[in-house]
Amino acid sequence: MRDEFRADLQIVSQLLVDMAEAVRAAMRKATKALLTADRDAAEAVIARDAEVDGLYRQVDDRVYDLLARQAPVASDLRTVVTALQVAADLERMGDLADHVAKTALRRHPSPAVPAELRGVFTEMAEVADRIAEKIAKVLSRPDADLAAELDRDDDAMDALHRELFAVLLHDDWPYGAETAIDGALLGRFYERYADHAVNAGRQVVYRVTGDTI
Amino acid sequence: MRDEFRADLQIVSQLLVDMAEAVRAAMRKATKALLTADRDAAEAVIARDAEVDGLYRQVDDRVYDLLARQAPVASDLRTVVTALQVAADLERMGDLADHVAKTALRRHPSPAVPAELRGVFTEMAEVADRIAEKIAKVLSRPDADLAAELDRDDDAMDALHRELFAVLLHDDWPYGAETAIDGALLGRFYERYADHAVNAGRQVVYRVTGDTI
C-alpha cells in the first residue's frame, strides 16, 4: 500500500512538473509573439492551452483516486491536496500566457507593444521565465530556499509593474488610450502569472515545512 | 461516524455561505465607494478583506480535518474537496472587491469613473451582485437550474465588458490614458469576480450531478 502510494504520488508530481514546463514554454512563446508580432507563435500558444487543461484534469482525477483508495493522513494528505491547488495555479498561468498571445494576435501585424515599452516587457518576461523555471524545480524537489527566491523575483516583477505604469501615465505618453489599455492589461497578465507561481511555490513549501512563508 | 460527518460538512457549508455573503457585501460597498467617491466605504472594504481570508483558512483547516478523520469516498469525497476549491474562488472574489475599493481610494476625492462610464459600471455591479446572491443560494442548497442561470449572468457581464471597451476605445474618448486604464482594469475586476462566481457554481453542480455544465 505504502509503495503504491509513493508510486501514485510520483505520477502526480510528474504531471505537475509537466504543467510547469508547459506554462513556461507557453509564456516564452507568447512573449515572442508579443515582441516580434509573430502570428504563428501566438496561434501556437492558443492552440496548446488545451494541453495544459488536459494535464490539470489528469491531476484532478489522480488526486481523487489517491484520496479515495489510500485515505492518506497527516503530511501525505497535505501533499496530495496541495497538488490540486498547485495545479489550479499552473492552469491559470497557462490562461495568462494565452491572454498575452491573444493580445499579440489582435494587433497583428502591428506590434501590440510600442518601442517605449519593449524594454520593460522584455524584463517582465525574463522574470516570469525565471519564476516558471524555479517552480518546475521546486515541484521536482521541494526546496525552501528556492521558494524564498520566488518571493524576491515577485518583488522584482512588482517593481517592473510600477515602472510600466510610470511610462503609461507619463504626461508625454504619445499613443492614446488603446495602446495604454493594452499595456496596462499586459502588465497585469505578467504580474498575475508571477503571483500564481509564487502562490504555488508557497504551497509546496508549506507542504514540506508546515510553515507559511 | 456518519452523523459526525454530516455535522462537520454542515459547518464547512455554512462557512462557504458566510464567505459568499461577505464577498457580496464587499463588492456592493466597493461599488458604492467607486460611484460616489465614498472614502469610508472604500476603507471599510479594505479593512474587512482579512475576514474573508480568515474564513478561507477555517474552511482549509476543517477540510483537512474532515479528510484525515473520516476518509470519505465517492460523492462525499468530491463534496469535501470541492469546498476547498470553492473557497479559493470566493477568496479571490474578495480580493477583487478589495481592488475596486483601492482604485476608488487612489482617486479620492475625484471619482475614479467619469460620467460616460457610470451607466456601464452600475450595470456590471448589478450583475456581480446578482451572481454573488445566487452563489450564496447554490451553496446553501445545490440547484443545477440556478447554477445554469449563473452562466447567463456571466454572458451578460461579458456583453457589458465589451460595451465598456467600446466606450474606452471610441475616437471621442476625452479623458486620456490614466482614466482609460482605470476603466479597463476596473472592468476586468468585475468580469473576473463574475468568472470566479461561475466557476464556484460549476464546481457545486459538478459535485451534485457529476456533470460539468
TrEMBL record, chains A, B:
Lineage top rank: taxon: Bacteria
Main location: cytoplasm
GO cellular component term of the entry, any: cytoplasm
Keyword Ribosomal protein on entry: no
Subcellular location: Cytoplasm
Record domain PhoU: where: 17-103, 122-203
Pfam families cross-referenced by the UniProt entry: PhoU
GO biological process, any: negative regulation of phosphate metabolic process
Claim: NAD is one of the keywords in the record: no
Alphabetical UniProt keywords: Cytoplasm, Phosphate transport, Transport
Quaternary data: Homodimer.
Family note: Belongs to the PhoU family.
Purpose of the protein: Plays a role in the regulation of phosphate uptake.
PANTHER family per record: PHOSPHATE-SPECIFIC TRANSPORT SYSTEM ACCESSORY PROTEIN PHOU (PTHR42930)
Protein name: Phosphate-specific transport system accessory protein PhoU
Organism of derivation: Micromonospora polyrhachis
